[in-house]
Hints:
This protein is an alpha/beta fold. The protein has two domains: 3-122, Response regulator (Rossmann fold); 125-260, Homeodomain-like (Arc Repressor Mutant, subunit A, Orthogonal Bundle). The protein is built from 14 helices and five strands. A five-stranded parallel sheet has the order 2-1-3-4-5, with helices on both faces. Strand 3 (45-50), helix 3 (60-69) and strand 4 form a beta-alpha-beta unit. The longest helix is centred in the C-terminal third of the chain and has 20 residues, at 241-260. It is globular and about 70 Å long.
Amino acid sequence: xxxxxxxxxxxxxxxxxxxxxxxxxxxxxxxxxxxLVRFCDREPVRVAVVDLYWEQTPNFEGVRQLKQRLPRLxxxxxxxxxxxxxxxxxxxxxxxxxxxxxxxxxxxxRPLLALIERAESRSLAGLVRRSLDGIDPLALDAVLLxxxxxxxxxxxxxxxxxxxxxxxxxxxxxxxxGFPPPQRLITWGRLIVAAHMLEDRHRRADRVAxxxxxxxxxxxxxxxxxxxxxxxxxxxxRGGASYVVRALLRQVHSRVxxxxxxxxRSPARTPALAI
Length: 275
């Protein structure tokens, strides 16, 4: 479940977006451009859907500033098309708009959902999915859930419910693929999202810790050291989310390799001679 922020001038646009997304993503409506920026800055927002003409004239400078501040954020423009607005679309692309929805043309539920999913796939979940290509589908779903729901209080029991499997079955399937048990995997998912947020250099570790519900900034730093032997600053410098995903996969490959190594046999004991 991705967090999607919206700044839309027509209630019809909001309704159509909610209909398309159903319960697949969490939707947050913002009241103005400033609240949109604050919310995207504070929460792990993957996609923002904005009406470029929310204030009658397109806010290209606001778009540019938001993309500079949050370069990993995917921005989708949702507009009512008019002839006089055609030239603005070229400026929208240059300013940093990643996708376009035209009211009455692209916003039927299925194409609108497909557009949002494509935008979301270019973000963090897409990176994780590509990195884990070829693994057991249940293990893949488990990892993706720990990432897309990192901002929730996800527990091993809740993860098992979302996967529609008994908790023990989830643990066994993860172990067979070399992944850690659910509780540790949930922490890995939170670290992947935290590292993704740290890629935006203005974000401080304490803000990331608060957003992802770590008990404190110190607890977040301690978790980084325990799992990655790195500080938040080092995680940012080493590549952010991709660095954490690589670290997780190294552990997975190490466990798989160890599981397939033949066990050395104990040397046979020489029978004692009778005296």
